[in-house]
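Request:
You are asked to prepare a plain-text protein record giving the amino acid sequence and the backbone structure tokens, at your earliest convenience.
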Amino acid sequence: MTRFLIRRIGLALFSLWGVATIVFFISKLIPGDVARVAAGRLATPEQVAHIREVLGLDQPLIVQYFQYLGRLIHGDLGTSVITHQNVVADLRAVLPTTVQLVVLGMLITVVIAAPLGIVAAANEGKAGDVAGRIIMVLAGGVPVFWLAIMMRWVLGSLLGWFPISGTNSVGMAPPDVTGFTVVDSLLFGNVGNVVDSVDHLFLPALALSTPFIATLARIIRSNMMTALKSDYVTFAISKGVPRRRVILHHALRSCLGSVLTIFGMQFGWMFSAAVLVEAVFGLPGVGSYLYQAIFNHDTFSVLAAVFVIGAVFVITALVVDLFQIVLDPRIRHAQVGAPA
């Protein structure tokens, strides 16, 4: 087990290095002069040259790369040329909004995808299955940014069912303690603030989760259909076990391993997809921060935001692998040689 952990953590660190390297060199392909942006439009050539020297941009590319890795190891992601603050502080301020958006999106995914996949598998070839597959195809094929725009326009602007932007209504923002508006509202026991915070997050979370609902429902349906045709399920049915119990207890239980893997990985995928949704709904999260950084040619902020998104993806994969080792004896036996 120890060797597996060392090997898996080493692979995660190698992946993080790969993400940092790719992001750094791609950022150098972005046209424009970072020093000019940092110095301002009215800066003289001497002032621009001074800023370039301060930021280390006058050094050869390979030197800049190793300086970047050195800062990264020490947790220094640089200084934003727009806000003139440490990028870590900037990200710490916007990260809670993205996290609570993704968490709510995952809750919506489970609540809708699990029943949809189970009903479709239990009614294979029937009207319920056909309807479920049509919904999955439509949900999985719609681009997230287009869906977010349509939901904002129809459900927010035309029907007025949901707020169309921001994290809280005017005067409803809770005192900032953790940065998570829902958690802060709960801490102060203000039910109205809790409802207002969730209300502002629900529509973006629904738009974000829709493609993932289709993916998870398809996997549940496919695995459930295989499980329902297995010998142990046939044996359970022949013994007179109620069909509802066979589906929910025997078949669903055998599918949880692969479903857990996909569901866990969706946290990383949702985190990256949140860039588009946050920009549409005006949520001050990592996605909006990255969008503004790209628009303003704030290279250090772009590097940091993309690296954080990549790190979330890598760490999520590591956690999912460890959960599988703990929960599934077959995988534990295959990976670490422990008895199944």
Notes: The chain has a mean pLDDT of 83. The CA atoms of residues 260 and 270 lie 15 Å apart.
